[in-house]
Amino acid sequence: MPAAAKNATSASPRKTSKSSKAAPIRKKKATTETDDESQSEDEYDSEALDESDGEAKKQKKRKRKAVEPTKKTRSPKKKKKSGGSDEDSDLDLGDGQEIAGVIVQAPKTGLVPPGQISKNTFDFLRQLQKPECNDRQWFKLHDPVYRQAEKEWKDFIEVFTDLLIEVDDQIPPLPPKDVLHRIYRDTRFSNNKTPYKTGFSASFSRSGRKGIFAFYHVMIKPGDQSMIAAGAWCPGKNELDTIRSNIQRDSTRLRQVISDPTFVKYFGEPKPGSSRRSIFGRDDELKVAPKGIVKTHPDIDLLKCRSFAVSYQFKDSQVLSPEFNNTLVEMATVTRPFVRCLNDMMTVAQDAEDGDDD
After folding, report:
1. How far is CA 57 from each of CA 42, 49, 60, rounded to the nearest angstrom?
2. Are 260 and 335 in contact (CB under 8 A)?
3. If you average pLDDT over residues 71-85, what whole number do you get?
4. What is the pLDDT of residues 187-234, one digit of tens each?
5. Hey, which residues does 196 pair with through a beta bridge?
6. Is the CB of residue 217 less than 8 Å from the CB of residue 209?
7. By its UniProt entry, which InterPro entries does this protein fall under (predicted)?
8. HSE (CB half, 13 Å, CA atoms) of 322?
9. In the chain, domain spans
10. Tell me: the pLDDT tens digits for 97-135?
């Protein structure tokens, strides 16, 4: 009996341990019998255990990205800062952002009617003459001022075009965009790398600001540098050869035009020399006779010219005068015979002209 009791006592723990192991099995089986629609997150992760550790980590990362709500990040807002205001608040700038400057608004006083030049426009151009102002950042901050000055110049040219057509009917009635020059400089082949011109300008010819024809050129520039010019500046090779051929045949008409007393009054005596006067003394003038022409030719002074152009400068007070347009018309009237003479000499050979007369 004692032995049997002992065996019974020792068997009891083993039975107990067996029953304790069966409990979790039943629990796991109960778990697997749940509906497929209610699969838990643990089941998704358990399937990943059969894969490699690296892929399992990627699965978990993709899962977390899909579950975790994305946070919307707001881009930093810039607050406009008005110059000199006490109500200015700190700017909410992002990384790498900085204040470039304050935009300067166009002046609301000192405006003039169409066909006149205001002091506001001259003030803007005078600032462009300063190296510290003639850069893209300064120009961008003063864009409203530039736009107002540009519109004023367009209105001026539109009025002048109508007046010029009355003087020279060979000038077509083109809109300002076809005669105005851009304010942006071409700095590719220049030692001066300032990006902007310091004056407004426009050119008028039979084909607008471009073409082979002689022109009328108007420019306003502070510092008594405004001017009107007329003629042919550096004509093309074919046009220059035609002019020289006509001069060799007969230079009478050209000499009469540049010797007219009114023409001489504004542009000087037509005599070559060290100083610039009339059509002589330009930087591109030849020092020797052109190829194929003897240096003893009676018109060698004309034949050495590379450009056939004259110019007259105005004081700032004249430009700002309400009568400046009329002043330009008077100068255009003086230069009209010169422009027409050059157009004939560069486009019609003397032989062809003689054949028409016959």
Report:
1. 15, 10, 5
2. no
3. 46
4. 999 999 999 999 999 999 999 999 999 999 999 999 999 999 999 999
5. 184
6. no
7. CHP02453 (IPR012808)
8. 3
9. 180-357
10. 777 789 999 999 999 999 999 999 999 999 999 999 999
Q: What is the pLDDT of residue 273?
A: 79
Q: Residue 73's closest CA among 95, 97, 100?
A: 95
Structure tokens at 262: 């009114």
* Global pTM value: 0.72
- Cα gap 194→197, rounded to integer Å: 8
pLDDT band at 24 (very low <50, low <70, confident <90, very high): very low
CB 303 within 8 A of CB 280: no
Whole-number pLDDT of residue 277: 87
Per the listing, tokens 């020792």 go with 10
Measured in degrees and rounded to the nearest 5, phi and psi for residue 202 equal -155, 150
* Chain length of the chain: 358
Token code pair at residue 235 = 């004509």
Alpha-carbon gap, residue 288 to 233, rounded angstroms: 20
Q: Is the pLDDT of residue 149 over 60?
A: yes
Phi, psi values for residue 219, rounded to 5°: -140, 140
